[in-house]
Write a structure and sequence with these properties.
4 helices; mainly alpha; 0% strand
């Protein structure tokens, strides 16, 4: 049995001279595979985070646009309430329940 392994592997001094039982190219290949696996993992995680950030950006941009539209509508309403007497009257009647001096308010339950 000892004789067969010496024939296949070689003596201890021959194994040391060759650099061990595992050849250097096998170790190098394993290192390359490990580095490639780490790179792929990092790339996939980064891509997932980038997609999540893109979705969040899209949501925030739509929220900002909705707020800008609301702000513009409020600016128009303020301008009308400042200048247009008919709009002022309608707002006073609707929001403050005001009536003219010649009108009477009759509550209906």
């Amino acid at each position: 049995m000892q004789q067969i392994s010496v024939e296949i592997i070689g003596t201890r001094s021959e194994v040391r001279r060759r650099g061990g039982i595992i050849p250097a190219w096998v170790l190098f290949g394993m290192i390359i595979l490990a580095v490639a696996a780490v790179c792929v993992t990092v790339n996939l995680r980064t891509r997932a985070k980038a997609q999540l950030a893109a979705v969040q950006l899209s949501t925030i941009e739509s929220d900002v646009q909705a707020l800008r539209d609301t702000n513009q509508a409020l600016k128009i309403e303020v301008k009308k309430l400042s200048n247009d007497p008919r709009t002022i009257e309608l707002a006073a009647r609707a929001r403050l329940n005001m009536v003219r001096s010649n009108e009477y308010l009759v509550p209906i339950d």
